[in-house]
Amino acid sequence: MAAVLQALSALLAALAVFVSLAAASLISRFPPPRTFAELFPAKDNPSIAEARFWAPACNGVVCFLCPRHCFLPEGGRGLCKVRMNSGGKLKTLVYARPVSVHVDPIEKKPVFHLLPGTWIYSIATAGCNLRCAACQNWEISQAYPEQAPGKTPAPAGLTLSVSPDGRMFGSFEQKEYASMTPKDVVDAALGTRSKSIAYTYSEPVVFYEYMYDTAYLAREKGLRNVMVSAGYINRGPLKKLAPLMDVVKIDLKGFDEGFYRSFAGGELRFVLDTLKSLKEHGVLTEVVNLVVPTLNDKPEDFKRLSVWVRDNLGKDTPVFFSRFSPNYRLQNLPQTPVETLTLARDIAMKEGLRYVYVGNASGHPGENTYCPKCRRPLVRRAGYAILENLLTPNNGRCPYDGTRIPGVWADEPLKPPPKAAEGKR
Ligand code: SF4
């Protein structure tokens, strides 16, 4: 008996050592966030700004930016990790504090009906209000803002050179920013000859104030704005933002409430409401559906999604079926077979959608824009490259039969931004 007890206590001691070592290793790999005062010592820290869309409520504040309606007690943060109750006021912790800044081809967003073949200046901060199992940018979307490095490299200009064989090429000049104000973003976008700015990579809804102010300034300077979002936003903030957006790309993850809850930690009905709201505000909206094997890849899933888009947003809404690659929490699933994407596209077109694309499958004929009347290709693409564009020189019309293709195909002057509410910029 004594020997058994001795063995048991040795086992327990070994287990305790193992658990402490594992905990120490986890803490060193994923350090807990430090305190607010440690992280943001300067009173004039430009990354802290008063948030919009909130109200005081018994010993705390309530955020109304997204359907989560988080209640934040003093010092508490919202589910997005980037909005905080500090001194009884809701603050955003990511104003002018992007963590990822790049110049991308607009096809990478993917956005196909806005100025094909142009550069788009793309920014993201930390934070997200969803928890998608297949997030492609989880390192930033699920991070606390204080986990970001002190400075963010960003393209700030473009140098053009001529190679010995006479070909012209360009390279972006990189600059390091401790904070990047809306003016810095717009100046850098102009300096890199980008035609538009994308609020992308993580979830732009959670850096609403930064996005709004940048988009306003961008519009004043003749740049277009694109929000790439999961669409988890309340109607009020969206209504105010909509006039500044030239295209909104919504990631519609599936068409089943149960799937949405388990896959993304959100509710489908709010995303559908955002899509309807964008339609009401007349914003050019493109929809992308990431097709994940075994989770949302049944023919009936594609049909329900397509029918809803056709009946609520219209046949002219561009819809993408995009290829999943094993990622984040779904490393166990295979890449989406190309045949499944082709099937999804066929079903959507059979339901009457006119511009249905296949994403992340370079060389697929579903990357092209076709005339819905004569079926000839009007914009031919291969990955992010434009092989042929017949729409820009023909004012967005099919050169064969004159059919007007929805979108912005020529870089024409923009309307000035709407008058901003006093004190809200
Ligand atoms: S934006 Fe963030 S703090 Fe506000 S309701 Fe949504 S998750 Fe909560």
How would you describe this structure to a colleague?
The protein is α/β, with parallel strands linked by helices. The chain folds into two domains: 45-92; 100-152 and 180-394, Aldolase class I (TIM Barrel, Alpha-Beta Barrel). The protein is built from ten helices and 19 strands. The strands form five sheets. Strands 7-8-11-12-13-14-15-16 form an eight-stranded mixed sheet. A three-stranded antiparallel sheet has the order 1-6-5, with no helix packed on it. The chain has a three-stranded antiparallel sheet with strand order 2-3-4, with no helix packed on it. Helix 9 (299-312) packs parallel to helix 10. The chain is globular. The termini are far apart. The model has no long low-confidence stretch (mean pLDDT 92). The chain binds iron/sulfur cluster. Residues 63, 65-66, 68-70, 78-80, 83, 129, 206 line the site of iron/sulfur cluster.
Layout: helices, strands, pairs:
Elements: H1 2-29, H2 36-39, E1 49-50, E2 54-57, E3 60-63, E4 71-73, E5 83-86, E6 89-92, E7 100-105, E8 119-124, H3 138-141, E9 152-162, E10 168-177, H4 182-191, E11 196-199, H5 208-220, E12 224-229, H6 235-241, E13 247-251, H7 257-264, H8 268-280, E14 284-291, H9 299-312, E15 319-323, H10 338-350, E16 356-359, E17 369-370, E18 377-382, E19 385-389
The chain binds iron/sulfur cluster.
Iron/sulfur cluster binds at residues 63, 65-66, 68-70, 78-80, 83, 129, 206.
Number of strands: 19
The helix count comes to 10
Report the sheet-strand fraction. 15-25%
How far apart, in Å, are the first and last alpha carbons? 75 Å
Helix-strand category: alpha/beta
Shape: globular
Bound molecules: iron/sulfur cluster
CATH architecture of the largest domain: Alpha-Beta Barrel
What is the succession of H and E elements? HHEEEEEEEEHEEHEHEHEHHEHEHEEEE
Q: Output the CATH topology of the largest domain.
A: TIM Barrel
- Give the integer mean of the pLDDT values: 92
Question: CATH superfamily membership of the largest domain, which one?
Answer: Aldolase class I
How many individual domains? 2
Strand order in the largest sheet: 7-8-11-12-13-14-15-16
Can you tell me the CATH class of the largest domain? Alpha Beta
- The low-pLDDT segments are none
Helix content: 25-40%
Instruction: Report the biggest beta sheet as strand number plus sense, adding barrel if it closes.
Output: 8 strands, mixed
Structural Rg: 24 Å
